[in-house]
Specification:
The chain is an alpha+beta fold. The chain has 16 helices and 12 strands.
C-alpha cells in the first residue's frame, strides 16, 4: 500500500498544469460551498430572529387551543407562575405577557375592525423590536394608560394622526361590553402589512381593566439568548409547567415554538434552502465532470503504460486501485485548500458583515440592520466538501473500471 500511495502521488504531478487546474477547480467549488452555505444559514438565523422579535417571540405559552381558536376566554390564568418558571431557566433572555382582543376601532371619520393588544411597556421593549419601528411619536407607556400605538396602515385607513382619539368597542372576557377611548401617541411600521393594517397596542394594565381580564393574559412571549437554545427552553418549560410549580392553570397550557407560530416563515426557508441545494449540486457535478475529464485523459495517455504493467504481472485490480488513490490525492488537496480558504473568507465576513447599505430602507422595515453575517458551523464547513468528495470519487470509478477490460497486447499497441 505504501508503494501504491507513493506511485499515486507521483502520478498526480506528472502533468503539473492539469493537476493545478483541477485542484483549483475543486478548491474554488469548496470555497463557494462553504461560504454560500454559511451565508444561507446565517441569513436564516438573522431572518428568524428579526421576524420573531417583531411579534411572535421564540416561544409562547398559551392556553391549549388558543392558537387555533383565539377565543377571548382561553387565557393564562396565572401568568406570575409562568414568570417564576421562566426565571429559573438560564437560556431565557427576556419574556413578557400580552392580551389580545378583536374590536371595532373608530375615529371621527371612519370605522374599522382590528385587534387590540395589551402589552407591558417595560417588558415588551426587551422582547419585541417594535419600539425601534415607531415612525412617529413614541411607544406605549405605563404612565399614559390611555395612550395607544397604531399601525401606519390602520392610521391611514382611519385618517388619524398623533393626538387624535380612537373609540374601541369589543367584548370582555366575561361577555360584557368593553369600551374605551384611546389617544394616538405613536405610529409604527413593521413592514408586515397584516400587522400594520389591523393592530393597535395599549398598556396591559388598562387592557385588563377594560376587557375584564383580571390578572389573566393570553400569551406569555419568550425570547431565548440564541435561536439554537430554543428547543431546550421549550422542553424545560413544558416539563416545569406540568409540575407543581406551574400554578393553577385551567385550561392546561402549551408551549409553542416560533416554527409552530409562524409556519409560513419556516416554509419560505425550506423553499430557499431547496433552491440553494439545487445550485450546489449543479456546481458539484461540474467539478465531478472536470475530475472525470482529468482521469479519462490520464487513462488514455497511460494506456500503453498500463498494458506493459499488466504484461509483467500487475493485476488490473491494483491498477484500478492506483487510479482511485490518485483521485483521492488530487481531490483531497483541492478539498483541503477549499475548506481552509472558505473558512477564512467566511470568518472574515462573519466578523465584519456584508454591507447591504443599498437595501437599508427595505431591511429597516423588518428590524434588520444594513449588514448580513454568515455563520460558520461544522455543517456549513464540511457538508459541501464531503459531497464533493463522494461525487468525485464516483466519477473516478469509471476510468478505474475501464482498466479491468484492457487487454495487455492491445493496450501496448495504443499510441
Amino acid at each position: 500500500m505504501k508503494i501504491d500511495l507513493q506511485m499515486a502521488w507521483r502520478n498526480v504531478w506528472r502533468n503539473p498544469r492539469r493537476t493545478w487546474l483541477t485542484v483549483a477547480a475543486i478548491a474554488f467549488a469548496c470555497l463557494i460551498l462553504v461560504f454560500m452555505l454559511s451565508f444561507q444559514l446565517g441569513s436564516y438565523a438573522t431572518m428568524i430572529d428579526s421576524s420573531v422579535k417583531i411579534e411572535a417571540g421564540h416561544l409562547q405559552v398559551q392556553a391549549k387551543g388558543y392558537h387555533a381558536d383565539h377565543e377571548m376566554r382561553q387565557v393564562v390564568r396565572d401568568p406570575a407562575a409562568v414568570d417564576r418558571v421562566l426565571d429559573g431557566i438560564p437560556q431565557v433572555e427576556a419574556y413578557t405577557s400580552r392580551a389580545t382582543a378583536l374590536a371595532v376601532i373608530s375615529s371621527d371619520q371612519r370605522t374599522y375592525a382590528g385587534q387590540v393588544v395589551g402589552v407591558d411597556p417595560v417588558q415588551e421593549a426587551k422582547v419585541s423590536s417594535l419600539e425601534s419601528l415607531v415612525r412617529q411619536g413614541s411607544f406605549v407607556s405605563a404612565d399614559d394608560p390611555e395612550g395607544a400605538l397604531v399601525g401606519d396602515l390602520l392610521a391611514n385607513n382611519l385618517k388619524v394622526k398623533l393626538g387624535d382619539e380612537l373609540t374601541v368597542i369589543g367584548q370582555g372576557r366575561d361577555g360584557s361590553v368593553a369600551a374605551t377611548v384611546l389617544t394616538v401617541r405613536g405610529i409604527f411600521s413593521s413592514g408586515i402589512d397584516e400587522l400594520d393594517r389591523t393592530t393597535i397596542e395599549m398598556p396591559l394594565a388598562n387592557f385588563q381593566q377594560v376587557f375584564s381580564m383580571g390578572d389573566a393574559v393570553h400569551e406569555v412571549v419568550v425570547v431565548g439568548k440564541d435561536l439554537w437554545g430554543v428547543p431546550a427552553i421549550q422542553r424545560q418549560l413544558t416539563a416545569r409547567l406540568a409540575g407543581p410549580g406551574g400554578g393553577d392553570q385551567s385550561p392546561p397550557l402549551v408551549v409553542l415554538s416560533w416554527n409552530e407560530l409562524m409556519p409560513g416563515l419556516l416554509q419560505s426557508i425550506k423553499v430557499d434552502l431547496v433552491s440553494g441545494l439545487i445550485f450546489y449540486v449543479a456546481l458539484i457535478f461540474v467539478v465531478a465532470f472536470s475530475i472525470l475529464n482529468t482521469f479519462l485523459m490520464a487513462f488514455l495517455e497511460r494506456t500503453r503504460e498500463f498494458g506493459v504493467m499488466m504484461a509483467i504481472g500487475t493485476p488490473p485490480g491494483r491498477l484500478g486501485r492506483l487510479l482511485l488513490l490518485e483521485s483521492l490525492a488530487l481531490t483531497g488537496v483541492g478539498i483541503g485548500a477549499g475548506i481552509v480558504l472558505g473558512c477564512a473568507v467566511t470568518l472574515y465576513f462573519q466578523a465584519h458583515g456584508i454591507d447591504l447599505s443599498g437595501a437599508d430602507e427595505l431591511l429597516a422595515h423588518f428590524g434588520i440592520s444594513g449588514r448580513m453575517y454568515p455563520r460558520l458551523s461544522v455543517v456549513s464547513a464540511l457538508a459541501g466538501p464531503l459531497l464533493v468528495l463522494i461525487i468525485t470519487g464516483l466519477a473516478a470509478l469509471y476510468p478505474a473500471l475501464k482498466i479491468r477490460r484492457l487487454k495487455p497486447v492491445e493496450a501496448m499497441r495504443h499510441v
